DNA sequence: AAAGTGGTCAACCGCTGCGAG
DNA sequence: GCTCGCAGCGGTTGACCACTT
């Protein structure tokens, strides 16, 4: 038996999302939630498959996402959990409020894997600084995180034309959804590890302050959206 | 200044698990 | 109990960017 493809391949857009698409998705989910990802793009008027919409929302557009600035504690927690759980990125993500499995997976592969490997070598009495990366990691000041450094580089670049008034206007609009907006729309998404008695308590970080304020992404989206609107 | 190299991260692909009928 | 459709997950890719030579 052949399973039907996840989506109609023809006519569907792939690749990077545009600011316009982001806004359409945000607006649609804001108003309707996402009871059915498969049907969502059609209803929202997006030429994307449901999977793509879901991924974009879960990993990038959800307002309760913290972007960049992995703290040293978070990185250590990822290393610790990975040692316990292996590549269970979604489980690890559930222990790190505001972090997505995709982001954690990326951080692991780009930073932490090497760090762990480096420490193993150090443990074996053969500190190997042949890799420039491990040198950076080991020499940086305590409490600093590498991702903090990299995000500082990437997130602040290219936002010269950002209109703070536009951002604050948009931020003003969020409370209209009500404080319980997200829990209403996504009851199934409540992180069971936090909402229910977690039998295996893990280090908790400060509750995710809502991150729209400090999210470089939103700056970028609204910046690009503004540019887009100028063309309309 | 140009080319090469490596790092980063968003997004896609394919598989799995689960629930409804 | 079986089939089907869906959401979710983990692996992988590729474009972009920064740094080095």
Structural features, described:
The protein has helices at about 20-30, 40-45, 50-60, 70-85, 90-95, 100-125, 130-140, 145-155, 165-175, 180-185, 190-195, 215-230. Among the domains are: about 20-60; about 70-155, Arc Repressor Mutant, subunit A, CATH 1.10.10.60. The chain is mainly α. Helix 1 (about 20-30) crosses helix 12 (about 215-230). It binds a DNA duplex (21 and 21 nucleotides) through helix 3, helix 6 and helix 8. It is found in: Nucleus. One of its GO terms (molecular function) is DNA binding. It holds the Pfam family Myb_DNA-binding.
Low-confidence stretches: 1-5, 126-215
Helix content: 40-55%
The level 1 CATH classification of the domain at 72-155 is Mainly Alpha
- The strand count comes to 0
Roughly what fraction of the amino acids lie in strands? under 5%
Rg over C-alpha atoms, rounded to the nearest angstrom: 20 Å
Backbone structural class: mainly alpha
> If classified by CATH, what would the architecture of the domain at 72-155 be?
Orthogonal Bundle
Annotated CATH topology of the domain at 72-155: Arc Repressor Mutant, subunit A
CATH superfamily of the domain at 72-155: Homeodomain-like
Shape: elongated
pLDDT averaged over residues: 63
Topology order in helix (H) and strand (E) letters: HHHHHHHHHHHH
Helix count equals 12
First CA to last CA: what distance? 48 Å
Q: Please outline the major beta sheet.
A: none
Pfam families: Myb_DNA-binding
Subcellular location: Nucleus
InterPro entries: Homeodomain-like_sf (IPR009057), Myb_dom (IPR017930), Myb_TF_plants (IPR015495), SANT/Myb (IPR001005)
Domain Myb-like: 9-61, 62-112
């Amino acid at each position: 038996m052949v399973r039907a493809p996840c989506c109609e391949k023809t006519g569907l857009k792939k690749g990077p999302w545009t600011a316009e698409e982001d806004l359409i998705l945000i607006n649609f989910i804001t108003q309707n939630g996402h009871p059915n990802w498969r049907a969502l793009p059609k209803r929202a008027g997006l030429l994307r498959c449901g999977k793509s919409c879901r991924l974009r929302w879960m990993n990038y557009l959800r307002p309760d996402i913290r972007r960049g600035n992995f703290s040293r504690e978070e990185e250590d927690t990822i290393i610790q959990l990975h040692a316990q759980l292996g590549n269970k990125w979604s489980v690890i993500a559930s222990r790190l409020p505001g972090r997505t499995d995709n982001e954690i997976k990326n951080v692991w592969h780009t930073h932490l894997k090497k760090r762990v490997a480096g420490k193993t070598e150090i443990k074996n009495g053969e500190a190997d600084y042949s890799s420039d990366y491990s040198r950076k990691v080991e020499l940086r000041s305590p409490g600093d995180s590498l991702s903090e450094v990299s995000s500082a580089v990437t997130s602040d670049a290219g936002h010269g034309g950002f209109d703070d008034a536009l951002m604050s206007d948009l931020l003003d609009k969020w409370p209209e959804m009500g404080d319980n907006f997200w829990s209403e729309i996504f009851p199934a998404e409540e992180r069971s590890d936090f909402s229910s008695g977690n039998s295996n308590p893990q280090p908790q970080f400060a509750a995710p302050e809502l991150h729209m304020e400090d999210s470089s992404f939103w700056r970028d989206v609204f910046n690009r959206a503004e540019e887009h609107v100028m063309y309309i």
